[in-house]
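User: Can you recover a sequence for this backbone? Please restate the input before giving your answer.

Assistant: Of course. Working from this structure:
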C-alpha cells in the first residue's frame, strides 16, 4: 500500500517532515520507511518493515 503525502519543503530533513506531518495526519513515519521525493510528493511505502 502506498500513501502519498504533500511535500512541505524541498529542504526538510526526515525528522522535520516527521514533525510537520504529525501536525496534520496520524500517519507515523519511521526511518525504516522508504521515502522517495518525486514531482513534489512524498511517496511512502506504508507497509515496509525494517530488514
Amino acid at each position: 500500500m502506498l500513501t502519498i503525502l504533500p511535500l512541505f519543503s524541498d529542504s526538510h530533513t526526515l525528522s522535520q517532515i516527521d514533525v510537520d506531518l504529525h501536525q496534520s495526519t496520524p500517519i507515523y513515519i519511521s526511518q525504516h520507511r522508504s521515502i522517495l521525493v518525486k514531482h513534489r510528493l512524498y511517496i511512502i511505502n506504508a507497509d515496509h518493515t525494517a530488514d
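That completes the design. The helical segments are 14-22.
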